[in-house]
Amino acid sequence: MVATLSASFTRLRGMTPAEMGYRLLRAIQARTERSRTRSARPVPAPDLAFGGNPWVKKDAKVSVAAYTKAADGIAEGWLDVYALRHIDIGSPPRWNRDPKSGIEAPGAFGKLLNVGDTGLVGDIKYLWQPNRHQHLVTLAQAYRLTGKRAYLEVIQEHLESWFLACPYGVGPNWSSAFEAGVRLINWSAVWQLVGGQDLPDDFRNRWLSSIYQHCEFIRGWFTLHHSAGHRLIGEAAGLFVAALTWPNWREARGWAATAKAILEREAVAQNAPDGVNREQSTWVQQAVLEFQILCLLAGKANGQWFSPDYESRIEAMLDFLASITDAGGNVPMFGDADDGFAAPLTPAFESSLSKSLLATGAVLFKRGDFKLKAGRLDERTRWLLGAAAEREFAELDSEKTRLPLRQAFPEGGYFVIGCGFDTADEIRMVADAGPLGYRRSAAHGHADALSFTLSAGGREFLIDPGTYSWHAHPAWRRYFRGTAAHNTVRVDGLDQSEPRCRFAWQKKARAGCSLWLSSPEKDSFEGWHDGYRRLDDPVKHRRLIELDKSTRRVVVEDTLEMAEDHDVELFFHCAEHCSVSPADHGFVLTRDETAIRLILPQAANARIELYRGSLAPMAGWVSRAFDTRTPTSTITWRARLTGQAVLRTEIHIVSHGHDAPSGAVPPD
Question: What is the pLDDT of residues 530-580, one digit of tens each?
Fold first, then answer.
């Protein structure tokens, strides 16, 4: 109880008066609605004479066997839920139970339920994930491809049990408008694939009643103020897609208009003109792209056209995604990630949403450079764009339509340093001098100012270690979004930005780029941040990164402007597949036929340590998937420094066909 009150007080301290008023009104609204739920007006009868035009293409040319195999497992009750792989969740599942902890959430009024209380509901991410009903889309795809009624029967059984277990307004599945929006998008895909209008009357009407309730729930419970990032876009997307799929009530026109207005506004507000999503998270970048593309396609199918600004933001966002993706298809894991969001129509056997988005973008915008990044036309794009997409994708010439690579994204604060892009000799670094995150809370940003990632030949060497957890592991949450979990400098053991709670920051570092030059010979980036200006003896950190393209050598110079003594640390997080070996003044990292030599700064009292899977201190971890962490190597340089200091790090990169750097042993 004390901890809950303390957390509530901490959140209140970070709110503006306007947000406090908004939250007070929401609390009053929720309590009023709780008293009225049992006597809520009945759902109006749907007018079945109307139906929306489908946005799912039923003529998709896909692998039937892969879908039937996946659907058979689901029918038997086997699902993947985050770190729980191939678990027997039941068919149908227990919808209000966290499959990880076994905790059954209470049947309280959803809008007043504290879903962040792990003792009450377990890990809410695990509970919500099966309730998004992505698995029903896989069953519907298998039914569409085979006509096997057993798949349709499982869909009906799961939905019927969900309607009983999750009555309107009750329980954790009626606490989040975002979750309701994702569920509606998946239901829309299922409805189109199985021919929902032809289902048995009683079942169809129960489903339509829940759809109406979902739409009204979202319409009255949009996420606003500091939490109104990608969640608001997801909520509006769910309402918009539902309004077009089921225009069976007079309210549907209002739902569509409200949702479309939000999408138009937020697409421009939340995504910078250079294409970077303002939450500073590459996962959010992809999730928002998916929502916006789905709405664009659903709108076109139903005569609802979006503005040129909306479409241009989508293309700019794809540009950014393509620019930070290396030759091996790796995307840096900046900011928070939640891989539980699976785009509708994406089968479990295809996991790369980034390549899928680029494949879709290649066809939509006639971009051969997106085709080059995507590599092939994936299953999700086939369902979205139909059989014609195969020909359109094949006709794109990735060389003739290839545009110059964008390397500078000044509004988002990312800069791509490198050479030999999209070849076996590629060097690609992504440097971060952007803001901490979006709005006051910066909820999904990490304290990673002036960090960078490095890949060579499409192989990752220096990485952002990811997210790991949101709710269930507070200490790990602090570590993975803290400064020590990024390739940058930490001063006096403190994060650059000071956290307030799991999804907000008390004090936020400001960062910026002071120099960006790119030529055929050299790329130069310099950035700064003021996160340590809050110290009694203020410290300003500037970082210069220069790549000499002919010698394949990177120089990183960290300048610390300070007057007194400070403990300074430099972190280098290695990809888990790297072999890390000591060398003169540093280390050699090797992967396959590529190696890099890391030469660390020289200082009289410096200590160098290599961590791998360490718990005390937390170091040497990477999280490639939500709630999953794997040991990796983290190189840490530490020294006590006085006055202004310049720390020089050199990185020599050698791959097959290039001379080895001095002191490094090239692979056989």
Answer: 999 999 999 999 999 999 999 999 999 999 999 999 999 999 999 999 999
Cα dihedral: 115, 120, 125, 127 (round 10): -110
Any idea which residue has 């006051």 for tokens? 440
| Beta-bridge mates of residue 531 | none
Report d(CA 69, CA 82) in Å as an integer: 20
Long-range Cβ contacts of 114-121 (<8 Å, 24+ apart) = 114/4, 115/172, 115/175, 115/176, 116/471, 116/502, 117/4, 118/471, 118/472, 121/172
Question: Which residues share a beta bridge with 271?
Answer: 277
Return the closest-CA partner of residue 104 out of 178, 37, 166: 166
Distance CA 346, CA 359 (A): 13
> Of the ranges 7-16, 332-341, 463-472, which one carries the lowest mean pLDDT score?
7-16
Instruction: Count the helices and strands in the chain (H runs, E runs).
Output: 18, 25
pLDDT band at 402 (very low <50, low <70, confident <90, very high): confident
Count of CB atoms within 10 A of residue 79's CB? Answer: 22
Q: In the chain, what are the domain boundaries?
A: 271-406, 410-654
| pLDDT tens-digit readout, 194-231 | 999 999 999 999 999 999 999 999 999 999 876 788 99
- Cα 627-632-635 angle, rounded to 5 deg: 125
Q: Which CATH number fits domain 410-654: 3.40.47.10, 2.70.98.70, 3.90.226.10, 3.10.310.40?
A: 2.70.98.70
Tens of pLDDT, residue by residue over 642-656, are 999 999 999 999 975
SS (H, E, C) 61-110: CCCHHHHHHHHHHHHCCEEEECCEEEEECCCCCCCCECCCCCCECCCCEH
User: What is the Cα–Cα distance from 189 to 52, expressed in whole angstroms?
Assistant: 12
Instruction: Please report which helix (H) or strand (E) contains residue 286, including its range.
Output: helix 282-301
Q: Which residues contact 128 (CB under 8 A, 6 or more apart)?
A: 172, 173, 176, 179, 340
